[in-house]
Give the backbone structure.
Amino acid sequence: MMSTPTLSAFGQHFEIIPALDEATRDAAHRIRHAVYCEDLHFEPTRPDGRERDEYDSHSLHCLLRHRASGEFIGVTRLVLPPPGPQGGLLPFERTCGAALYRGPLDPSRLPRETIAEVSRLAVVKDFRRRRGEAQSPLPMSEDDFGTPSRPRCPFIPIGLYLGAIALADKLGIHTLFTLTEPRLAQHFSRFGVAVVQIGEGVAHRGVRIPSMISVPDVLAHMSTMVRPIWLEVEASMREHLHQAAAQSRQEIEARCG
């Protein structure tokens, strides 16, 4: 009998799930509202308790589930270029405008079907209550990394970013863009997630830096500390996408009689 693989420390506590049905998509919008509208007041509160915007019609979400409680505690969104012959602009392209560097990493030079933007990363307040985290939607501080002799991994932000990367990889997306606090780019570089600045900082809920992440480079240069988490995140993403595809086929066959 084949034994069940032992979960990493991340997998013992958390699970990444793509939001592929109404229930999980609703959970994603509820978390966004709790964090961006109620806690941080970045967006106005909504009567239905769900935060949405114009980009959701061409976006996909990943959720972070806390195994012990069964609750979804975090979310991230992958925004795809709007449909159409020219592909439209991603949110960061509109926000940054002339602040973007117009060199080899200029997003306007890349095939639109191979790019996406990571946005709306959010973690519920019960999991970001430490000093300095209350006013940030995504918890990460210097203390999360431990010491040189006893390093550790910040599971929540790494798990959410890897979820977005796994989803992008499955969709054939090669380049991810993000608009984040400067410190996050520095932190993620420690784990082989090279975040390359592609423009000047802009004023957007504080100072934010436009950056890009190469999906193939991340997969090739991931640190040994992050690799076990990636394997679990990728396996979960693959399983849920397979189940969704199988269910869609069954529904089509049922309708066709």
Q: What stands out?
A: The chain is about 35% helix and 20% strand. The first helix runs from residue 9 to 13.
